[in-house]
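In response to a reviewer's request, we include the raw inputs and outputs for one of the modeled complexes. The two entities were modeled together in a single run.
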Amino acid sequence: MKQSILSINQVFKSFGRIQVLHGVSLEVQQGAITAIVGDNGSGKSTLIKILSGNLRPDRGEIQIGGRSYHGLTIPQAMDLGIRTVYQDLALDNFKNSVENIFLGSERMRGPFLDRRAMAEEARQLLEDIHVQIPDLTQPVNHLSGGQRQGVAIARALRRPGSVLLLDEPTAAMGIQESHSTLQMLSRLRERGMTQLIISHNLHQVFALADFIYVLRSGHIIAGAATADTTIDALQDLILRRESEVEEV
Amino acid sequence: MIALKRWCSRQSTSLLLLVVCLAMMVFLSIQTQSFFSLKNVVNILEANSYRLLLACGMMCIISSGAIDLSVGSILSFSAICTAMALKGGLSVGLSIPLALALGGIMGAINGLLIHFTRINAFIITLATAFLYRGLSLIATQGIPITKLPQGFRSFGCGDLFGMESGVTMALLVIVLLTPLFYHMRWGTYVTSLGGNPEALKRSGVPIGRYRVSVFVLMGVLSALAGIIVTARLNSAEANAGLNMEMDAICAVIMGGTALHGGRGNLPGTVIAVFLMGLIRNGLTILSVSSYYQQFITGAMLLCAVVIAEFRERKSRIG
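The model returned the following structure tokens for the whole complex.
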């Protein structure tokens, strides 16, 4: 059994009268890929936003690095080694790949930006994760979906971190690009990178994850090692009527 | 060769404006002998020094995805406060920092209101434009404050290196703003505010600090412009700076700064201010009515906006 690196205990979140998360608890094991699957509106993205410091939970705690937190801010989550690749990728389309990778953590030479060092490091980073961008000086809106995803992942990996959160990493991608992104995540696991992936694509999740949680209407209704379950069983849990679901 | 091609492509707006400037200069030199003299070039620079300051600040504001319609009102109110302080016996050495600080505070109010209320900058600065202008009118009761001390006039429009000190100040601001905007974190974050503020926030950057700082810079530059205008006229009045923000916005858009923010063009802005000054000067020398100046400026702005919008759409599709 691998050691838990991040855990969430009884996290609640509501927006006005709408209760989005109802006491969600889960654990992320070190060096493994943990996936959260669920239908649209199940609360997956809200959970990622809480972990990355974009939202504060109403109740509950997040345990990371041996300490408990009732909520995180973005800089705090970053300091704790939580790196996030958002579904919309959060890229500045006017800026090039290098500028996006280093946004918020630029390499400086005195008070000035060290563009040469940043370009060199960005090239190395992208090479490490097998992302090919021939011209790093092009604005990122000229890149393909897969290349943009690569830039977002390279930005997340630039600073040493303990957990990589990925919100729908292959959403709005073609088959080829999805395949290369999944390969990239697989290679990151081989290098020991802990990942928490949110997806509604069960086939991709089964190909990649070591452990899967099912989130439904803000409740974790199941959690199992990938080897101990099947796609059909999870699909059944996701689609089953509310009254038929027993919390696991 | 590829690097040169890329540079030309990036600077295409500035180069185009430069060509238009040169063409105008050649045309005006042929039309009138008095145009092509050092004195006239210095005249154009002197008459546009405060416009340069305002346009530089506005370039930063528009790059950050905002707009500031209160520039002329800040200029007027800070100048009036300075003039009142001077008349009240405050020394020139203290009244000038006071004016700059006041400009900075008014800019900070704009920035803080926009950041915390999340209301569009257009609406907030439109409201503060009326507010600051109203304060100017209340403070002066509409009566200009004239006969300012010689020391103040020397600072604002005295002779420095053979031209008015306002020109030197504008050049100094351009020299300082170039590394700040293009080679330092501040410029990167300011343009990202226009490009994708959410990306900047999620990168752990305190976006409020940068949003407010752009408006503070605009306020300080407006106050500096106010000092130059007041010193040149030897009078501070509530209606000073009226519509000056429009000239600044016009120059910034013509200069190639992205309409919705995300990218700024300082050289283009500087050349656009000079081009607009050239048109004003040329038409005056040719004894053309000032009504045509407004018409030509409007037509140029319309062309620049249409070209910029199509370019941006093309770049988004690309």
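As requested, we also summarize the result in words. The two ends of chain B are 23 Å apart (CA to CA). The CA atoms of residues 180 and 187 of chain B lie 6 Å apart.
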